[in-house]
Amino acid sequence: MYSFENSVILVVDDDRDIVNAIAKLLTGEGYRVLKAYNGLEALETITENEVQLIIIDVMMPKLDGLSTMMKIRETKNIPIIVLSAKSEDSDKILGLSMGADDYITKPYNPLELVARVSANLRRYLSLGSAGNAVSDENTVVTGGLKLNTKDKQLYVDGETVKLTATEYKITELLMRNAGRVFSAEEIYDRVWNDDECYAVENTVMVHIRHIREKIEINPSEPRYLKVVWGIGYKIEKINGGK
Amino acid sequence: MRFLKNKWTRLAVLLVASVLVCGCTLKCLDIVREYDDGEAVESLYNSDMYSLEGERLYSELWLFANLYIKNQDENGMLDEGSFKTKHILNALESLGYKNGDFLGSFRYSDIFNFYVEYKGVAGYSDSDVMDFPVDEYTILIRGNEITSYPSYFNGFGTGCHYYTNGKGFEYYYIPHYNKGFAVYDYDTEGLQSYVDELGATIYLNEDGSSPIPTAYRQDAMFTTASDYVPCFEGDDSLCEIRLRLNEKNISAVKAHEAFRHEREKKIVTEAVGFIPVLLVILVLSVYVMLTAGFDSKENKYKMTGFDRIFIEVCVLVLVLSGMCLVMLTEYLRNVSEIDSWLSSYAYEGLATDILYGAGVTGVYIVAVSILSSFVLRLRCKSFFKTSLIFIILSKIFSAMGRFIKKAKAQARENEINAQILKDNNYLRRFIARTAVFFAVGLGVLFIGFALEGLAFLVIGFIILVCGFVYLCIKDLRELTTLSEHIRRISEGDYTEYALIENSSAYGMHYNLNEISGGFRKSVEEQLKSERMKIDLVTNVSHDLKTPLTSIISYIDLLSKEELSPEARDYVAVLENKSAKLKSMVSDVFDLAKATSGTDIKKEKLDMVILTGQVLADLNDKITNSGMEIRKNINADTAPVNADGKKLYRVMQNLIDNALKYSLPGTRIYISLENTESETSVKIQNIASYEMNFKEDEITERFTRGDEARTTEGNGLGLSIAKSYTEACGGCFRVEINGDSFTAVVTLPLSEEKGETLCTETE
């Protein structure tokens, strides 16, 4: 387990109670927390201090979160988590495409917030350079997932995850074809190599759920392993994972 | 440059120009006066003496030629014994020649030399002058017309006439004396006579007729009211008379001409001297006009009150002042008295000078001011705006335009009303047409038989039938457009249908357009209010989320504190309820979005797979609930075009509901069936309580089966399921049969075009 006790996190929100709550939560986890209440303050703070991660609200007075983020991105490469009450897909896509590393909707789950913060920090601090994230013969990478096919190991944000043999096979199939949707039958055929097709959907789904619980921070809102309802399953292809 | 445009510079320039104008006027007056003085020296040609003397001499010479030369014998004498000579002498006596002694009383002229010729016999004033030239000092009269005359000649009365009937009667008319006389070459003794209007004694012929032909008498013309001139035609061309100024008068005329020439030259010289001054005045005037109205303070051209006076008034003033000047000129001819009175104090013509100078300068200033104002108006683009006529005309035109527009609109409205009122007249038209067709057909038949022309019969009938069919097809085509229009409306296309003005279907199309317009409007309004509702819900849910975030965060922090067991229980309750609140807020939001149907991403998917996935996904929950689920999938595949996430939510909500409200120990049946065009998923369970609600009520928002609202759930599950299903183009239905509760999700299969299949069976 990595330790990031000295990491500095900047929390930006115009609601002081929320900032305080997050500060308290993260301080409890051993992080140092800086506070800002609008975009301009946030920009000031990051020029004056060394910050490793930013949690930022979107709707703020003076300078909104997205604009602030674009400003920060001009100079800094640190992870930014957007924390917003806007929960629509289009809002998430907009936030992520404008430079956010993660998008959490309000009201957030405190445990999930902590988990995401540490995941992002880990990725940024330990995997940092893009060099590690490039797929070669023996590794398959998508986002924070890294699969070493040689020693059959899966790393999530640099941390080893233990998978059963079937789970590993499913993960390998989906990761090697990241972005492609597989139906349950296809997965069953290729992983089990078994002609007997009884309750395939259930069997596959159970494994998928297990894998999800291991690799996803919030299994009910998966980032990597997704169910494409009415079609099948896939692992999202995420380029240039940090 | 600024200085040039200054108001005061302008004024000064105007003053200078005015002074120059005044000076010019005075100088002009001088010249005119000088010219007048010159004109006062009378030329001989202009004198009365010249023309009077000329006329007299001409008349006498003419008489001499016609009476003497014509009638004389070889010795130059008249035949003493003849009747004619007697008459001639009488006549001459009546003209004032004593005893008819023409030659004796003939008066020579101081002015003219003369020459007279009749049939080659000539007479001279001066027998020494054999060569009598026809030059610039000679008046030449042939017959009774002046054929050549000096350039200054003013003319005098010629027109002596001679007539003969060839039977001894001759008539002479001398305008100079305004007298006529008759000469007879026969004995007039005892003949009846009368005296005509010119004093001539006319003897009637023996038979009582007049020697003057009736036609001539009737043609007698009256040069004045009292003048009677018999309009005879006689041969006068034999007589030629020349009048030439004598040497003394020629030299006088020459001298006068020289003087006149000299003076003209002088005047022209002086007038040419004016040109530069006039140019200067022109330049100054143009300058004043071009810079008029420039406000150097504001650095722009500006109109003042003067520039707003109507143009017509300005023009009137200009014209009036011009007329005043003309009247002044007239008047000045009579001011010589004042002049002569003033001349004892100053010089002659002072009053004229003052009046004229002031008058012309005044008119000049008025003209320049008005023209400057016009230029300024043009510059300010308000030339026509200050014209009374233009204003009145434009008012009239705009009023007329309005009237015409109104009348046109009225006419158009009337026409439309007429068209609308014109109900279906196809039948009427068809009957009328058929009747005409039959009538004409019969006509063709009769004519055909009458002429026994088979060809005519056949061709006539073909033409008739073709025309009839064409008209029918035309009508039917119009009806087809009508059915097309109705089809469009029934398909929900409420756009305006292009009206065909002169079609009989116009009224019907118009009314259909009205109907679809009403629909469109109500649909638009509905959409608008729906959008507003969604906006409201979105905003409210965002506003709810922020405090909720704090609540959840602090409850979490609180749960980490050291607490008494009781407090810990309370925190657990808080945690539980806040989580519920959170899900409710997000459900409300989802519902609002679903109703709008904006967030739907349709893709091809399989309901069979989806059902399996959902069941697998909820496997844990199902196992935990202890309920038993029976799956009954009666199809290999059920491809639909829908949003997978939304359908997952639908299925999840329905299964959740079934798990929540089922009577323990009963089974939940999930079945999937395909019909030709749609697939339906049924979820059937036995309720654990009495369902005393109607089937359509349960899908309303916030309605729950158990009215006590004791169990978990917020009553949004079924409404979300319904909204999402409908947003995906499907139909959601609930069936209640005793304690059996069935939810049916029906979706169109994607081989068919995605259409709403919601058939309201309830």
Q: Mind describing the biggest β-sheet of chain B?
A: 5 strands, antiparallel
| Fraction of residues in β-strands of chain B | 5-15%
Q: In order across it, which strands form the biggest sheet of chain B? A: 2-1-10-3-4
| Distance, first to last CA of chain B | 92 Å
Structural class of chain A: alpha/beta
Summarize the model shown.
The complex is a heterodimer of chains A (242) and B (762). Chain A has helices at 16-28, 39-48, 65-75, 89-97, 110-127, 165-176, 184-192, 200-215; strands at 8-12, 32-36, 53-57, 80-84, 102-105, 139-142, 145-148, 153-156, 159-161, 225-228, 232-235.
How would you characterize the overall build of this protein?
The complex is a heterodimer of chains A (242) and B (762). In chain A, 40% of the residues lie in helices and 19% in strands. With 242 residues, chain A is an alpha/beta fold. Chain A has two domains: 8-127, Response regulator (Rossmann fold), CATH 3.40.50; 132-235, Arc Repressor Mutant, subunit A. In chain A, strands 2-1-3-4-5 form a five-stranded parallel β-sheet, with helices on both faces. A four-stranded antiparallel β-sheet of chain A has the order 6-7-8-9, with helices on one face. In chain A, helix 6 packs across helix 7 (184-192) and helix 7 packs across helix 8. The A-B interface holds A 15, 17-18, 21-22, 24-25, 28, 59, 85-89, 105-110, 183-184, 201-202, 204-206, 209, 227-232 and B 542, 545-546, 548-554, 556-557, 560, 578, 582, 586, 589, 593, 599, 603, 605-607, 609-610, 612-617, 619, 640, 642, 644-645, 647-648.
